[in-house]
Structures are given as structure tokens and as C-alpha cells.
Amino acid sequence: MASVSLSEAEKVYIVHGVQEDLRVDGRGCEDYRCVEVETDVVSNTSGSARVKLGHTDILVGVKAEMGTPKLEKPNEGYLEFFVDCSANATPEFEGRGGDDLGTEIANTLYRIFNNKSSIDLRSLCISPQEHCWVLYVDVLLLECGGNLFDAISIAVKAALFNTRIPRVRVLEDEEGSKDIELSDDPYDCMRLSVDNVPCIVTLCKIGCRHVVDATLQEEACSLASLLVSVTSRGVVTCLRKVGKGSLDPESIFEMMESSKRVGKVLHMSLQSVLHKEESLGPKRPKVGFLG
Amino acid sequence: MPGDHRRIRGPEESQPPQLYAADEDETPAARDPTRLRPVYARAGLLSQAKGSAYLEAGGTKVLCAVSGPRQAEGGERGGGPAGAGGEAPAALRGRLLCDFRRAPFSGRRRRAPQGGGEERELGLALQEALEPAVRLGRYPRAQLEVSALLLEDGGSALAAALTAAALALADAGVEMYDLVVGCGLSLTPGPSPTWLLDPTRLEEEHSAAGLTVALMPVLNQVAGLLGSGEGGQTESWTDAVRLGLEGCQRLYPVLQQCLVRAARRRSAAAPS
């Protein structure tokens, strides 16, 4: 994670402010910064999304390719995650420096999608044991401004919502050999249902209270955080403690209650923004990277 | 003798025969959800490591070794900000490097020794759970290496590795605030899901969700938490964490006795 130098006085200022439910930029403890979400930004992908959360900038591209299903699950497709921490984000990521953080984030993404209900993997199957759709979700970290996990999970959800998988038909001839036919119409696509895709809510423990969506400075004051991955219905799919410090059991229970509340609001606003953007159709104003 | 790949044209990959066997309907038997399997723990068994521990719980066997403190690699980094609470600045603090490995014969299918993603994730989980307990400020510019080797996976492997690692650190004489005790849980699938404490491998395979909790028993602080799966609502996970913490507290006396015995053995063996 990018490091930031803070003096003792600044740390004390942040900690005391959080005790009073007032953070440095004026937010309350459970408020997110302003989030900008834009989908369909990269034309060569099956689906893409860009999320800007304060100073954190994430770009996700989803490419759907045909592959063979895994042996244990012959009727399902699967997702592969790759996270690239680019050197633009912070000089520490130059060369192999960002690899550790990238693998940690990718492993967390695998964990939150590791259950039957997040994504309907059966709809990704073309013919059992032979062909299936593999969704390669590639996350690019453009700028690191604190709270990476939340921003990445929002971007992944938006990109999956935007993913259009072409419809294929399997034709069998008399000899039994199968041929895959792609439909001629480029707009004849299958969409994925993202109702149950979870979003990560990171709660950082600062002093005796916890904050949602911490900036880099606030992360430097917190010794331990709890990462909760929650769906729009309040189902928790992943729970993880991050950081060098330890947490009190009571604060863990409080944090989980908060994460449920915050998660519901986050999902509702994300759904409404995605549907609104979709309804504007191809004529919507594109913001792109310099807006 | 290594296989001659140019002449022996076998398949590229090999599979265990169980994959092609008829589906066995082995469902785990119903049992008391709060039962803990009996644990055998022994510290101070490896001669080459500074500290070591072996833990056996049911079918799970873990061996852990600690070496160090030795000089930290990575060169000098500029003096960072002081940690909260006035400890040594970040660049001077010691480092804990944890490595979790599965033996290739530990599970049902043979795993290549370079496990990759999952082992790095579990190594990171070990590090995050042990860091709150170790007084790294007392080992400036040094690193402690903890390596856990899973010999057989009989369920709750990460929890056993955590406990063994903490015992090994204590056996090595590393300064710690408290021991770290780990406990595994799994959720039974179906209409009435219940959380089971200390699941066996069969129960883990048939589970809908799994959770590992690490507790520092005397300070009553949760040092580590890692869970995933379809666990249901937050209340269900809260119950699971409570059950796990209770399990950790019950396990603590066994570990205390193990360390006392190891200390006695060491003082008896030392030349007077």
C-alpha cells in the first residue's frame, strides 16, 4: 500500500476527530467519499468499468473466452482474477514491488466469489465437460488513494454488469463432431445477473471507533481493519482481519453490524447508477480519463 | 529414474483414480457442534531450529519451525513515522516472515510442491495473526522466519498451523505479549445450517462456509480472522466467531502444559 508520512500531532488530530464522529474531510464515520462509476470505457473487452473513489482510480476489463471446464465442476464456467498494481499508482510498485499486493487482492477476490450464489456459473457452460466460458477479470490499479478493496469490488461488479457474452450454439453433425457457431449479430449477447455479486466494505479501527472508506492518512492511524464482503441482501461471503494489530471481539460484532448497513446503501446506489447509465443508451456523455 | 518423455507418450497430466470412481455418498455423521478433537502438542523437537512445535488434532498434523532473529534483508529504508503508541519507527521494527506449505501427500489429490496462490494467502494470514502477539519492536532490523509444514490435512489446517506457529515462537524464546490459539469452524449446508467447531476434512468438504479464528486468550483480543463461503447473514457469522473464541479458550490449558513440559525437558537436558 502507498505509504504516507504523518507526524504524531496529525495522528492525534485524526484519532480525536474520529472519536467525535468527525473526520478530516468533514465526513461521518460511515460515509463514503464521492464515487464515480463509468462502464464500457474500453472497447476491446467484453465488459469494462472505471471507478474513481476520492484519489483511488481503478480500471477493470472483463474478457470472455472459451475454455475447458474444470474437472470437478464439468457443468460450470469460471472466473479468473488478475490484479496489476501499476507503477503509476505509487513509486513503490515499480518492478516487482506491486506483486505482493496484487496477489493479495486477487486472492481476496477469489475468496469472495468462492460460493454458489454470487455468479451463476452454470449459465457460462456451453457444453458440459468440453466447452465453457472463462471470464478473465483484469484489474488495473491506476492511482492509490486508500481503500483499495472497496473500490476494486465496486469496479468488478460494474464490469460484470456491463459484460456482454456472445451467444453460441453447438452444432452436432452426423459423425458426432461438435462445431461451435457464433451468432452473426454482434448485439446478440447474454448478460450476467449481478444481483448477488458482493461488494467489500473495509472498516478500519481508529481509537475505539471504526470508519468506513479510510483515506491513506486514516489508514496510517489504524492498526487493524476488518474486511467484510456483503451482498445486497445482507449475505456475508467473506470475513477477514487485515493489519498488524488485534481487535476486540465486541468491536468485531459492532463492525459487522455496520458493514451490513453500509453495504445495503452501497448496493442500492450502485444498482441505481448502473441502471441509469444503461438506460441512457449509446448517446450518453462519456467522461473518460480526463474529465 | 526420471520418465523418458520423448519415447513414453503418456498423458500430460495425471489424475487420481478417485475422480473416476462412482460417487460415494459419504455424508459426515451428526455430532455435538461444540466438540473439540483431542490435541497432542509437543514443543522443542527439532534440533536445527531455534524453536519448533508439532501439533496433532484428529487427522491434522502440522510441524512448525522458527528461525532467527537474523538481519533483515531489503536494505535500509528511510526512517519512517513512529508507530502508534511510541514504539520503534517503522523502518526499525522487526519483521515476521511466515511460510505455509502443504506436503504433496497431505490431501486427497497430490499437490505440486509449488502450491502458489493458496499457500501465499495462508502464509499472509499466518503473518497477520501472529504479528499482534510478537513484540517486533524488540528486534530492530531483524527478521524472524516461521515456516509451517502441513503433513496431513484432516480439517482445520490453518487453525492448527496458527497454534503450532505460536507454540514454536514461544519455544524459541521470542518475546510475545500472549500465545495465539487458532480454531476452525464450518457451516453445514441445508435447510437448518449449524456452525461446527473443529471440523474434520469430510465436514469441510461438505460445508457451505468455513471460518478460522485466532485469539490471544489472556488479553482476549482477536488476532486473526479468515472466513469465506455462503455463511448467511451477519448474525450467523457473529455466532460462529463467538463459538470459535470459546473453542480457543478451551484449548489454551493444553498449550500451557505443553510449553511447561518442553521447558522442563530443556532444563533437564542442559548440562548443569
Automatic annotation (TrEMBL), chain A:
Record's keyword annotation contains rRNA processing: yes
Species of origin: Microtus ochrogaster
Full protein name: Ribosomal RNA-processing protein 42
InterPro entries on file: ExoRNase_PH_dom1, ExoRNase_PH_dom2, ExoRNase_PH_dom2_sf, Exosome_comp_Rrp42_subfam, PNPase/RNase_PH_dom_sf, Ribosomal_Su5_D2-typ_SF
Family, similarity comment: Belongs to the RNase PH family.
Keywords: Cytoplasm, Exosome, rRNA processing
Subcellular location per the Swiss-Prot or TrEMBL entry: Cytoplasm; Nucleus, Nucleolus
Entry annotated with the keyword Endoplasmic reticulum: no
Annotated ranges, domain Exoribonuclease phosphorolytic: 32-166, 196-261
Gene expressing this chain: Exosc7
UniProtKB/TrEMBL annotation, chain B:
Keywords: Cytoplasm, Exosome, Nucleus, RNA-binding, rRNA processing
Molecular functions per Gene Ontology: RNA binding
Protein localization: Cytoplasm; Nucleus, Nucleolus
GO cellular component: cytoplasmic exosome (RNase complex); cytosol; nuclear exosome (RNase complex); nucleolus
Region (Disordered): 1-34
PANTHER family per record: EXOSOME COMPLEX COMPONENT, EXOSOME COMPLEX COMPONENT MTR3
Family that this chain belongs to: Belongs to the RNase PH family.
Protein name in the entry: Exosome complex component MTR3
